[in-house]
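Same chain as my last thread, 253 residues:
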Amino acid sequence: MTKKHLGQHFLYDPSIIEKIIEAADLHPEDLVVEIGPGPGKMTRMLSGKAEQVIAIELDDKLYEILKTGLAGYSNIQLIHGDALEYPYENLPEFKVVANIPYYITTPIIFKLLDARKCLSTITLTVQKEIAERIVAGPGGKDYGVLSIMVQYYAKPSLKFMIPKEAFRPVPKVDSAVVHIRVLKEPSVYVKDQEFFFKVVKTAFSQRRKMLSNSLKSIRLDVTEWLDKAGIDPQRRPETLSIEEFARLADMPL
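reply #2:
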């Protein structure tokens, strides 16, 4: 029995699971973390592709079922706990493969990126709309804070769609598999990372407004600031590339 409050929708089709694992580009020496193993079908398949699998399950009943069902797999370590609290930064180099509850998508991505020094890739099955936002480039409605935050640290790509009918119980929306390759260095150089993200978040807090209006709370001379950065003050935030946001953030105050 699935629990709605935990956002549980399980994949059972081995051909789809195999495609997810292929998208993760695993190697026999890899350490893989699976978040929310559910009934454990993908966990078992991952164990045949990687050296070690750490499966983190929050649900008490599922954990007990998995504890019995995975007992014969020597390279699977089952953890009973919250994936949002797990100390990923203490692991050696690892990869993540997971079909995660939709409601934790954004916080779990940022939690994982906090451990980017030891993280090489993230392969997630997420809500289709979220996947489109993660990979979006400038100029469209999907492009925003999530796009830039992920693309600052990583290179994401949308691998394939999964129709909602493939899950049990059937969710209300389709899903997509996104593969995120963590970069060794951020995609753009900025002098002050905190200020860079402040500029991005402030700009998109009023995404329908021109930058000359949406960025007023950061600088009173906003038009002059934008002009110096070579950015038309009448542009809207979704038209700016990550490089332009970086150039704006680096302009002297």
